[in-house]
Design brief:
- This protein is mostly helical.
- The chain has one domain: Ferritin (Up-down Bundle), CATH 1.20.1260.
- It contains 5 helices and no strands.
- Helix 1 (8-31) packs antiparallel against helix 2, helix 1 runs parallel beside helix 3 and helix 2 (38-61) packs antiparallel against helix 5 (122-165).
- It starts with 7 loop residues before the first helix and ends with a helix.
- The relative contact order is 0.14.
Length: 166
């Protein structure tokens, strides 16, 4: 058997992280009362699980098995996303819809660092490239859904104000 590739741990971490992402967005999608937001949350959940499966499959193709991890913080966040907290608050828990000054980190996504290992084979590199593109698209889709939710909420308030003035 060939030597263990240096990026196996990275593939395992992505597979586990994406499985956790599925749990988060599935919980939120099941809990939301916003019928316009639900399709985006469901799409993200499915995409997260597909990523998990794709990376688990790649591990298997390379002769390794997924090493599942447990994450107490994930369980807590799933409970929160199932709660009656507002969708606005739930978006904020992902850093969507909050002011840049309130965000943690430097604002970069660091996803290209996944390709820094020059020993990554072409098939794994292609998988990581697709993953990066879809993760960035997920961010755009969530931002778009957040803005649409804000517009719906503003329109509702305007209608309510006009009705109250009658």
């Amino acid at each position: 058997m060939a030597a263990k590739p240096s990026y196996i741990g990275q593939l395992n971490a992505i597979a586990n992280g994406e499985r956790g992402g599925y749990e988060l967005f599935k919980a939120w999608g099941d809990a939301t009362k916003d019928k316009s937001l639900k399709p985006t949350l469901d799409m993200v959940a499915v995409r997260e699980m597909e990523h998990s499966w794709a990376f688990e499959k790649r591990l298997s193709e390379l002769g390794f098995s997924l090493r599942p991890t447990t994450n107490a913080a994930l369980k807590k966040q799933v409970r929160y996303l199932k709660s009656k907290a507002s969708d606005k608050e739930k978006f904020a828990s992902f850093g969507v819809g909050i002011e840049k000054e309130q965000r943690t980190g430097d604002g970069t996504d660091n996803l290209l660092q996944l390709l820094a290992d020059k020993t990554i084979d072409p098939q794994t590199g292609a998988l990581i490239g697709r993953f990066i593109s879809e993760e960035r698209d997920t961010g755009r889709q969530l931002l778009k859904a957040h803005k649409a939710m804000q517009r719906r909420q503003q329109a509702k308030k305007l209608r309510e104000t006009k009705e109250a003035q009658k």
